[in-house]
Amino acid sequence: MPHDPIRAADTRAWLDKAHMDLKAAAHELTAVPPFTADAVFHAQQAAEKALKGFLVWHDAPFRKTHDLAEVGGQCAGMDSSLEEAERAIALAREVYEAIVSRLPQEPDVT
Length: 110
Description:
Number of domains: 1
Strand content: under 5%
Radius of gyration: 16 Å
């Protein structure tokens, strides 16, 4: 059965965005000193967009979320070969949250 061209284009759009985030992450690491927090942010975004591309390809609806564990779990539930990736996603999420928690808090303007 041929693939739906609209779904294929939508999937490609998600994967193209993921690729751009991955390139941005790599670029952030070339700075001296490297912008590691920014690189981690872009790497998280790349993973999220690639996983969502997988869901789009499989015509699986997903919530609007940035939770890699949730999106990765949904993907692994559809394809058991992604279970190992799901464990890596859990580790990546811990690293991301550790770095994000180091960001300065916004001042209270009330």
